[in-house]
Write a structure and sequence with these properties.
The chain is mostly beta strands. 10% of the residues lie in helices and 39% in strands. The strands form 13 sheets. Strands 37, 40, 41, 43, 44 and 45 form a 6-stranded antiparallel sheet that branches. Residues 303-400 form the Ig-like domain.
Length: 750
């Protein structure tokens, strides 16, 4: 078997004259060598078909790699290619050179041979806005050539106006032109590009785009057609028409499920749910008005019931129990008094049973049981039951007697002190609040904050309220503080707040009582208090807040005892302090904020050489001076000579704190003095009495007098130092815990 030579390479035209062309090339690489070369050439025109490249009618044979062709027609266009030959046959052709024979072509550079043009340009597919074009690669090219193709196109009307072609460069022999104008004729051609250059153009192709018409879509087709079961699968077919092809979308109950550019879209929907009743096919191709076709289906499903868990009703009033049933096909609906379904509720007497179907919601039914004149036998559990071929469902409703909110304070007195209007006082009785009497009375809405203060009973119920989703703008009511939006809170959130008040009455403590402060050092003081009057046995921890007057941030500490020592105090500085009690269910409100000035006095003497008599005389003098001061203060207050404040050396001043009105007067106790005791009470209230008891006890000291270092203050206790008492609102920034992001008020969330 003979071996053919390889194709020649690097064919170039090195010289072009008015009647001739000089060509050179490189011999084939490898064995066998070529014994002869044959040059093919022919005169062509720019519209010559690319199919004729193998039928050039002029040849020249030579043994060298140079050829000079003469006697050519000036200004004519010629094609040239070369093949190598040996005794076994002819090689593949070289690249093609197309030359315009004229001296003007010879500009000092050689002309390289390139591949023949692509051919067989054809229209593969079309729409109103797209044309798909395909073609064949060049016939004459080297086996090692790789090509990119440049497709030029434009509307035929634009080519007549001299508009430039649009160019698309790709690496394959098919391209889809998009974004074209409907019902328009386009002209296009292709060239091949390799490392040697760009080929001549292929033949020209003329093609029309389709005319455009708006999208049209049929009603969706759903399979299975008769029985679609909840939890199963269904297949939806959307059929649309239009030019260009429309974008088809499948919506089920308003939710986009599938979308594609097509005329037939099939979608399998798994796990069908009961709300998948509205199916829509939507089509839009950008022309005209988009179209939608819809279909409503029935999803067969077992019953599902939604209803209240608990219904509260006052004894003797009417209660209405309502269950909303969702099912298909229509279920049988029954009321029961027992979970086993053996004691039915019979229509008649105090019971009235009604069933309605919701016309606007196919497959929804309302079961309604009305109980007239509710008595003790009517409270308890009721069961609404629904059953159809796909299953059954039962829901439990508990009927409870509604009881007014019972509180530990005198409610009628609390309402009177807080200026509840006369028209709304019927909600207040001795030990309970009945909000039902004022719920629907517009004139009582401004009094709700006052009623809430009495109902909260000194406890912070915000933990319970936040669990019932009471919004932040109504949470202040849960601890007895006013809110800004009365109407909205009354309308929607008053019932859950009342429920929290009832639930917390036995679980939450009230605020601690009789807060006292005793200085025990230059930078420390002891704070003590008594357990709350309300639920003292439920207290797990106390939290003490203190800070410099005017600061926002407060320090705090917890203790399970009734006393705590606070440190880091500065002499001469005014501090605020408040305490609250709490447990795992929540906390009390804060005690009234107390302002005090921390001043610590140290008294010492060295009476060497003196006698016990001198000590006794000095003690008596001190006692007499104190009695004089007490009498002077009493007379001055009785004659209204003293103002709101009065501070003297080691004296006491009051700023009319609010707890004077809330408790039965102020009581100031003077604690012990060195080596003796002086106990006295100053009570200012409705009676204006002075109660005092003086004792002293002097003992021998062998020339030394020991000193005691004690000082303190509280609404009920003062010793050593200047203490200014006043109360402020319990809503003190830094003292009162803000609403945590998780809405929790367990223990002390702050």
């Amino acid at each position: 078997v003979g071996v053919l030579p390889g194709p020649v390479t690097s064919l170039h035209a090195t010289k072009v004259t008015d009647n001739g062309v000089t060509l050179i090339w490189q011999a084939p690489e490898g064995e066998p060598a070529a014994s002869m070369y044959q040059l093919h050439y022919q005169m062509v025109d720019k519209y010559s078909s690319s199919h004729d490249v193998f039928t050039l009618n002029n040849t020249l044979n030579m043994t060298d790699t140079v050829a000079e062709v003469t006697d050519l027609k000036k200004g004519a266009l010629y094609n040239f290619f070369v093949v190598a030959m040996n005794e076994d046959g002819i090689s593949l052709p070289s690249s093609v050179i197309t030359v315009n024979v004229t001296d003007e072509t010879n500009n000092g550079t050689s002309i390289a041979g390139v591949a023949s043009p692509p051919h067989s340009l054809a229209l593969e597919a079309k729409t109103a806005t797209t044309l798909t074009i395909g073609w064949q690669p060049p016939v004459l090219s080297l086996p090692t050539d790789t090509f990119r193709y440049k497709l030029r196109h434009q509307a035929l009307s634009a080519s007549e106006n001299g508009t430039k072609y649009n160019e698309t460069i790709i690496g394959v022999t098919v391209v889809r032109l998009e974004g074209l104008t409907p019902n328009t004729q386009y002209i296009m051609y292709v060239t091949a590009i390799n490392k040697m250059g760009e080929s001549r153009a292929s033949e020209t192709l003329l093609a029309w785009t389709d005319p455009a018409y708006p999208a049209f879509v049929e009603k969706p087709t759903v399979h299975p057609m008769n029985l679609i079961v909840e939890g199963g699968n269904m297949t939806v077919l959307c059929i649309a028409m239009g030019s260009p092809p429309p974008t088809v979308s499948l919506y089920i109950s308003g939710v986009l499920i599938h979308q594609n550019v097509t005329r037939h879209m099939v979608t399998v929907v798994p796990n069908v749910t009961r709300d998948m009743t509205d199916i829509s096919c939507y089509a839009d191709n950008g022309y005209g008005t988009p179209m939608q076709a819809s279909k409503t289906i029935r999803v067969s499903r077992r019953p599902r019931i939604t209803a209240q868990e608990v219904v509260h009703v006052y004894a003797g009033e009417t209660a209405t129990l309502e269950c909303i049933v969702n099912a298909w096909p229509e279920p049988s609906l029954v009321w029961w008094r027992d979970a086993e379904g053996r004691v039915p509720v019979i229509h008649g007497g105090s019971y009235s049973i009604a069933t309605d179907s919701r016309l606007s919601f196919e497959g929804e039914y309302v079961m309604r049981l009305t109980i007239r004149s509710v008595g003790d036998n009517d409270t308890g559990f009721y069961y609404c039951n629904a059953r159809n071929a796909f299953g059954s469902f039962s829901h439990t409703i508990k009927v409870l007697n509604k009881t007014p909110i019972k509180v530990s304070v005198d409610v009628s007195e609390c309402c009177r002190v807080n200026n509840v209007s006369d028209a709304c006082l019927d909600a207040c009785t001795f030990d309970e609040l009945n909000f039902e009497r004022v719920m629907n009375r517009e004139e009582c809405i401004p009094d709700f904050s006052k009623l809430m203060k009495c109902a909260s009973d000194g406890s912070d119920h915000r933990s319970c309220c936040s669990q019932k989703d009471v919004p932040h703008y109504c949470l202040e009511w849960c601890r007895g503080e006013p809110v800004s939006n009365h109407n909205l809170c009354v309308l929607q959130w008053a019932p859950p707040i009342f429920s929290c008040f009832n639930e917390g009455q036995g679980m939450l403590p009230g605020p601690p009582l009789n807060v006292q402060i005793t200085s025990i050092g230059r930078t420390s003081a002891q704070v003590s208090w008594e357990p709350p009057a309300k639920n003292p046995n439920t207290v797990e921890l106390y939290r003490v807040f203190w800070r410099l007057l005017g600061n926002r941030a407060a320090k705090k500490n917890d203790t399970s005892n009734n006393t705590i020592i606070i440190h880091g105090l500065q002499e001469g500085k005014v501090y605020e302090i408040a305490v609250k009690a709490g447990n795992a269910n929540g906390t009390s409100v804060l005690t009234p904020t107390l302002n005090f000035t921390h001043e610590y006095y140290v008294t010492s003497s060295n009476l060497q050489g003196s006698s016990n008599v001198g000590v006794t005389i000095g003690g008596v003098v001190v006692i007499l001076l104190i009695i004089t001061v007490i009498l002077a203060v009493y007379l001055a207050r009785k004659k209204h000579i003293l103002g709101g404040k009065g501070v003297a050396n080691g004296g006491i001043s009051f700023e009319n704190p609010s707890y004077i009105r809330e408790q039965n007067g102020d009581t100031v106790q003077i604690a012990e003095t060195p080596n003796g005791s002086l106990n006295g009470n100053i009570s200012s209230g409705m009676n204006g009495r002075i109660n005092g008891h003086l004792t002293d006890n002097v003992s021998g000291m062998n020339g030394n007098i020991e000193h005691s270092e004690h000082g303190g203050l509280s609404p009920m206790n003062i010793s050593n130092g200047t203490w200014n008492l006043q109360t402020s609102s319990t809503i003190t920034p830094g003292f009162q815990d803000d609403l945590p992001s998780n809405g929790g008020y367990k223990r002390f969330s702050s």
